[in-house]
Specification:
Strand order of the largest sheet: 3-2-1-4
Helix content: 40-55%
Number of helices: 7
Strand content: 5-15%
């Protein structure tokens, strides 16, 4: 139960981060994230998000769980301060996403959702069905994944010097192996990759 709780916390955090990144890219021409905001508030929010992310992606003892709850409370209070100073900036930070529990209830019984989220030093991957949630940590973060994807794209485009397609022991090879083990039972597989993996013709 404790492990599943961590998986759900991390998934919900990843979804908020993905949504915020999307809003920042779409609305960048009109409202840059941080523009018109007290730099101290922006810096504090970034620091809190980093601490929360660090706690979410590793196993937590009781003291760390209490620390996580405290940081999340501090983050909520900080968002209220940001909203008072700049409602537009607050709207880019308080993104409404679908909780994992609700998402699971809306999945078809024969569907498995695979979703990835790249951190600085590792990649998280979830296999979500109506009946279960499994999360795995893959070695290799954003930069390694970017390099592996770039290599794979070059090979697909005919550059033989980029072989092999999957680097032995690499993050993409581990991701493909994870998907293969989860794709045997369900009839339908939904794959939502993060960042560079979107550019691969999967």
């Amino acid at each position: 139960v404790a492990q599943q709780g961590r998986a759900e916390d991390a998934f919900d955090f990843a979804e908020r981060g993905r949504a915020r990144a999307f809003l920042d890219s779409v609305g960048g021409a009109r409202l840059k994230l941080g523009a018109g905001l007290d730099p101290r508030l922006a810096g504090r929010e970034q620091a809190l998000m980093g601490q929360i992310e660090s706690l979410l992606v590793r196993k937590r003892a009781g003291a760390e769980q209490a620390q996580l709850e405290s940081l999340q409370q501090q983050h909520g209070e900080l968002l209220r301060q940001i909203e008072l100073q700049s409602p537009g900036q607050a709207s880019l930070r308080t993104v409404a996403t679908v909780p994992l529990s609700q998402l699971r209830s809306e999945l078809d019984p024969d569907t498995c959702l695979i979703e990835t989220f790249e951190l600085h030093d590792q990649t998280l991957v979830w296999a979500v069905t109506r009946a279960s949630v499994i999360v795995a940590r893959l070695q290799g973060g954003r930069e390694q994944v970017r390099l592996e994807v770039e290599r794979a794209r070059r090979l697909i485009q005919g550059d033989s010097t980029a072989a092999p397609l999957l680097v032995p022991g690499g993050t993409l090879e581990s991701l493909v192996a994870f998907i293969a083990t989860r794709a045997q039972a369900p009839k339908h597989l939904l794959f939502i990759p993060d960042r560079a993996v979107y550019s691969l013709p999967l």
